[in-house]
């Protein structure tokens, strides 16, 4: 069975999220150095078509919603221009002790950039 397992899409989203953060000049390791971690709190995938292992899946990532304590990213996955999956992942912001962080206070530049990116997508 050469069909891509549904579980792989979650991994694809993680890789796309890491790449997206690097593209906006906030790589995940920089967040961690600032004392902030951002674990996944929710994932939602709507599978539209099957893919196979040789398929090249292109992923577009965007900021869907941001608040002072939570970020939701949206993903659109396509193969040869055809939609194969629409998904979202939500993440909270925590300090190293596991306490909720107010991103506006802890990392105001990052928070402001996320707000601007969200506005661009509306």
From TrEMBL:
InterPro entries named in the record: 4-hydroxybenzoyl-CoA_TE, HotDog_dom_sf, YbgC/YbaW
Source organism superkingdom: Bacteria
Keyword annotations from UniProtKB, A to Z: Hydrolase
Family note: Belongs to the 4-hydroxybenzoyl-CoA thioesterase family.
NCBIfam families per record: YbgC/FadM family acyl-CoA thioesterase (TIGR00051)
Name under which the protein is recorded: Esterase
